[in-house]
Write a sequence for this structure.
């Protein structure tokens, strides 16, 4: 995780770097630092804690210079302290780094024997030492390449050198790195939102590439020194999209952006006869789709929950066996996939290390690969031959919301496409689903209208120590997602269960102190869920029921009711999760936790 930024141009670097770090703070926020070249020497400021601590240091000791680098940290090696905050310096070299160097202990030992001294416990610091050692009769780029040949691991790296006040050198392996191409100025960052205020023309660095960045241009080469020509791509995200826009938190804004995010994800993809969808970057022909034996979905966290919904959708609509696997498990268990399978990797960021590794493992096994992703040209879609982009826009809140609903919308469209190509989805059913999809953004608006009632319930339960979430069928992954949202931003322990599993163990937890959130919408599981609620009530559990329309049977069982708009069963997960996102948000906001940057988390998990 961690976020890195860099600037070379004619403006003062430090405000631009601080602005970039503020937009990357979601990647890590336990310490931060800047290094700026003033034309003669490099000055470094670092501070433990959030970016505001570094801002205070800069207010009393401003930095001058038009070339610099910055870092916001999510600790891996060494405690989150000022000493371990980046940048790290040795000799003439200053570095910031995102990633993990696996052989750092060995290298540190060798360097110590040669008389080097270290001032932090980080793996990163060895890079400054290695590069400085190589800086004899070679260019800075060559010194960086030579040093990197000695390390094993992952990195996005930016390097400043006292000898040059007009340049940075950056390099990438596995961790994300984007170059922002401006006029008379150029930038680098771990993610696009840090660049948007300055440019929308970006170049994505590939693994084992290095670039020299000056105000006049960028020169990219591979580790063998061969120059690489790559034109910038224009991203359609605007700077406004990365602002809070009057909301108290990014998460709140992103929950409310879901009607727009869904409309954008569906736009241009639903055929005018409402019987099929067009997915331009999913290029498998009907003949190839018919040959598929199986779908395997790999993802982590919230994206994995979307994958669990995807299993229900594709098995029901395309009649094909689907397995949904956690990417971190898939990659280590000799998976069985081959040329007649389709592996679908789901990732908001497109940079999650475990999902990327699972994709690479699957690629080696010769399977078909599709990425469902929110970030254009990020590593996961680049590693897959097919892509289905969600158009949620930048998601900054660490807890994923709009990315999740748009991933499910993408999975509904994929299920439709597969079902049509395989000849198992009748015209009328396809039309029914496409009609419902067209109405989805409006229905989500209606779901959001219940926010005040949900906030009142959230206040009532804000001091609960534990929560259970239960549901059945296609809504079971939504119970898991509701529980994850609550625990990650409010730190309240929460578990999701299929309602039918309660009596096989978890029912032992129920007493008068246990709130149970139940999805009891009017679908074919309704009666069964009601029986489960009766079992909970008989043990004094406090039930908060999501229901399509409050009826007497639910009123008798539940203490609190959250009404949700009705839709077809396939789209229910996208509607029901809105209420659970709002419930988690308001519990956390009422308790005063850091909603957008919860403790111990970071948005883009680019380490294993
Ligand atoms: C939870 C959350 C995480 C991510 C997970 C995968 O709110 O955001 O669980 O879903 O880290 O991230 P992506 O989708 O970027 O691969």
């Amino acid at each position: 995780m961690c976020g890195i930024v860099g600037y070379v141009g004619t403006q003062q670097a430090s405000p631009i770097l601080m602005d970039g770090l503020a937009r990357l703070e979601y990647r890590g926020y336990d310490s931060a630092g800047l290094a700026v070249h003033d034309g003669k020497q490099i000055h470094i400021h670092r501070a433990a804690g959030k970016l505001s601590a570094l801002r205070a240091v800069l207010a009393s000791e401003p930095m001058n210079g038009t070339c610099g680098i910055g870092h916001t940290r999510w600790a891996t090696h060494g405690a989150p302290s000022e000493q371990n905050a980046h940048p790290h310096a040795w000799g003439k070299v200053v570095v910031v780094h995102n990633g993990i160097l696996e052989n750092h202990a060995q290298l540190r030992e060798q360097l110590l024997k040669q008389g080097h001294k270290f001032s932090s416990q980080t793996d990163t610091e060895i890079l400054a030492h290695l590069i400085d050692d190589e800086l004899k009769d070679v260019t800075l780029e060559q010194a960086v390449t030579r040093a990197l040949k000695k390390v094993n691991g992952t990195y996005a790296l930016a390097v400043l050198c006292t000898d040059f006040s007009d340049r940075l050198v950056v390099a990438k392996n596995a961790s994300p790195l984007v170059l922002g191409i401006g006029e008379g100025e150029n930038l680098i960052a771990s993610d696009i939102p840090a660049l948007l205020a300055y440019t929308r023309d970006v170049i994505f660095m590939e693994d084992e590439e290095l670039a020299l960045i000056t105000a006049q241009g960028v020169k990219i080469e591979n580790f063998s020194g061969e120059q690489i020509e790559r034109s910038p791509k224009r991203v359609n995200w605007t700077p406004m999209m990365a602002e809070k826009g009057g909301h108290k938190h990014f998460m709140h804004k992103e929950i409310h952006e879901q009607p727009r995010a869904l409309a954008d994800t569906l736009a241009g993809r639903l055929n005018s006869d409402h019987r099929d969808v067009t997915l331009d970057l999913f290029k498998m022909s009907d003949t190839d789709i018919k040959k598929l034996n199986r779908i395997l979905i790999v993802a982590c966290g919230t994206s994995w929950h979307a994958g669990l919904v995807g299993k229900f959708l594709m098995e029901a609509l395309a009649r094909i066996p689907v397995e949904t696997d956690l990417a971190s498990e898939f990659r280590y268990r000799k998976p069985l996939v081959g040329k007649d399978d389709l592996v679908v990797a789901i990732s908001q960021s497109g940079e999650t290390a475990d999902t990327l590794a699972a994709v690479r493992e699957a690629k080696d096994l010769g399977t078909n690969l599709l990425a469902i992703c929110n970030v254009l040209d990020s590593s996961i879609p680049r590693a897959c031959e097919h892509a289905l982009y969600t158009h949620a826009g930048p998601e900054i809140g660490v807890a994923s919301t709009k990315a999740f609903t748009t991933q499910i919308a993408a999975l509904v469209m994929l299920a439709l496409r597969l079902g049509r190509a395989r000849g198992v989805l009748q015209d009328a059913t396809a039309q029914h689903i496409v009609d419902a999809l067209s109405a989805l953004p409006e229905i989500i608006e209606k779901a959001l209208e219940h926010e005040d009632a949900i906030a009142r319930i959230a206040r009532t339960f804000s001091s609960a120590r534990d929560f259970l979430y239960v549901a059945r069928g296609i809504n079971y992954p939504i119970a898991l997602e509701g529980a994850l949202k609550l625990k990650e931003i409010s730190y309240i322990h929460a578990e999701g269960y299929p309602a039918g599993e309660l009596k096989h163990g978890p029912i032992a937890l129920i007493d008068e102190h246990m709130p149970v959130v139940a999805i009891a919408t009017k679908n074919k599981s309704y009666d069964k869920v009601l029986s489960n609620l009766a079992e909970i009530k008989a043990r004094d559990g406090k039930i908060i029921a999501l229901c399509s329309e409050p009826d007497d049977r639910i009123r008798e069982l539940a203490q609190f009711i959250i009404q949700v708009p009705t839709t077809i069963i396939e789209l229910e997960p996208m509607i029901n999760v809105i209420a659970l996102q709002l419930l988690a948000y308001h519990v956390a906001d009422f308790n005063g936790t850091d909603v957008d940057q919860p403790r111990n988390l970071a948005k883009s998990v680019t380490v294993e």
The two ends are 10 Å apart (CA to CA). The CA atoms of residues 458 and 587 lie 5 Å apart. The longest helix spans residues 427-448.
